[in-house]
What we know:
By secondary structure, the chain is α+β, with helices and mostly antiparallel strands. The protein folds into 4 domains: 36-42 and 116-206, Alpha-Beta Plaits (2-Layer Sandwich); 44-114, MutS, DNA mismatch repair protein, domain I, CATH 3.40.1170; 220-264, 5' to 3' exonuclease, C-terminal subdomain (DNA polymerase, domain 1), CATH 1.10.150.20; 281-420, Dna Ligase, domain 1, CATH 3.30.1490. Helices cover 39% and strands 22% of the residues. It contains 15 helices and 16 strands. It has helices at residues 44-55, 85-89, 98-104, 115-130, 157-172, 184-191, 207-211, 227-232, 238-242, 246-264, 295-315, 348-362, 387-391, 393-412, 421-424, and strands spanning 2-4, 22-25, 28-31, 36-41, 67-70, 80-83, 109-111, 136-140, 143-147, 176-181, 199-201, 281-292, 318-329, 334-345, 369-377, 380-381. It has a 5-stranded mixed beta sheet. Strands 12, 13, 14, 15 and 16 form a 5-stranded antiparallel beta sheet that branches. A 3-stranded antiparallel beta sheet has the order 1-2-3, with no helix packed on it. A hairpin with a 2-residue loop joins strand 2 and strand 3 (28-31). The chain starts with a strand and ends with a helix. The chain binds a DNA duplex (18 and 18 nucleotides) through helix 3, helix 10, strand 12, strand 14 and strand 15.
Amino acid sequence: MYVYFANHPIYSKFDIYKPVFYNYIGGNMDIKQRQILHIDVNNAFLSWTAIDRLANGEKLDIRNIEAVIGGDETKRSGIVLAKSMKAKRKGVCTGETLYQARLKCPNLQVFKGEYKNYRKHSNDLYKILLEYTDKIERYSIDECFLDMTDYLGNDTLINKAYEIKDRIKNELGFTVNVGVAHNKLLAKMASDFTKPDKVHTLFEEEIPSKMWTLPVSELFMLGRKTLPKLYNMRIRTIGDIAKQDRDLMIKKFGKHGLMMWEYSNGIDNSEVHYQKEKPKGIGNSVTLPMDIGSKEKLEEVLLTLTEQVTYRLRKYNMCANVVNVQLRTKDFKDSSHQKKLLYATSNTKEIYRVAKELLNEMYKKGTFIRLVGVRVDNLVDKDEVQLSLFNDESNKKQEKLDEVVDKLKDKYGYTSITRARKTSF
DNA sequence: TCTGGGGTCCTAGGACCC
DNA sequence: TCTGGGGTCCTAGGACCC
C-alpha cells in the first residue's frame, strides 16, 4: 500500500495534488485520509494515585499540591516518575532524582506508586475507547492510538475527540489530552501541546505554524544524544530539520536521520497496531540495595531474576533463543553479554546455567556492582520448538519441575516459593 | 538519601562461507 | 602469495520511548 501525503506542505507547490491523500490499495485509486487520535493521560501515575487516595477517604487531592510520584530512595531508586502541574511549574522533571527535584521545589511531597492499580485505571480507559473503535493500539499504560477512519459515521474526528475527552473525565475522574491528526506521529505531537484536559489538532496545513516553530528537542524520537549534534549544525527548531536536505540527514544520521527528516515534515505511514503482539524479549533487572562485590552474591541475585524472567516467559507459552545478562557498576558503567542457545527453551535451570556463564565472562573480580539484569530474546512460540527436545528424558523432568513451581506460584503468590540455590542447583 | 525498570530497534565489527 | 566482495549470523553497545 502506498500513501501519498498530497496536501502536505512539502508537496503544496504541486497544485495537482489537491487537498486529499491518495491511498493506493490493490490497484484501485481510492481517496482516503486516515483519521487518527492519540489519547494521553495527564500526569498518569500522579492522577491515578490521587483518585485512589480520594477513594480511600483521604481528603487531600495531590493533584492540587506540589507533589510527585517517586521511587524509593532507601532502595536507591529515588527518581521522579510523575509530577503534578504545580511541581512542574517549579521546574520538576520526570526522570530526575528526588534530591534534584527537592532543590527546585523544597515543599515537594513524594508519594509511592502502585503499579497494580495503574493497570486497572488503564483498563477502564481502554474500555471506554473500545466503544469508539476496535482499532486501538495500547502504546503504553497511559497512551493509546485510535484509528477512527471507518468509525466516524456522520460525526467529525474533532467532535469525537472532545466527546472521548469529556467522557473520560466525567466517568473515570482523570483528564487526558487528545491529539487529532491524519497519522500517528502528528496525533502524538498534538497531544503533547498545552496540557491538561485539551484537544489539539495537527493537520498538514498546520505543521508550519504549530510544529515547525517548536524547538527540535520536542520532536518525537529525538533524544538527548542527538540534540547537541543538531545544535552544531545550527539546527534549532523542528522547521530547521524539515528544511534540511533529506539526503544530507541520511548521510549524517543514517536511518535515524531519515526518520527525523520525515517526522519533522509530518510524514508517517505507520499503522495503528491494534492486534496484541507477542513480546520479542522479556527482562527483569534490579538496582541492588547496596553495591555487591562478590560473585557468589551476584549469582544469587541472578537466580532470582532468572526465575522471574522464565516464569513470565512460560506464562506467554514461549521459549527463548538468546540469554542476556546486564551489569551496572557502582560508577554507572553498563555492560551486557548475550549468548545464543543451541535450542530454544523456557527452562529455568538451563537459562540460569547460561546466565551464570555470561556473568563469569563479564564479572571482573573486585568491581562493585549496582545493577543486575537478566533478559531473554529472540522468543518463539513453544509449539514451534522442535518436538524432539521435549521428548528427551532430562528435559521432560526439568519441564515438569518448572510446571510444579509455576503452579505453586499461581496458587499461593509469586513469593511463596523461591529456590534455595545451594540445594536445588 | 544521586541517578528505575520495562521495552524496541539500530549499528558496527568479527567470524565464516562461497 | 600482495590479499575481492557479498551475504548471513552473532555479539556488544547505544539511542530512544514510556
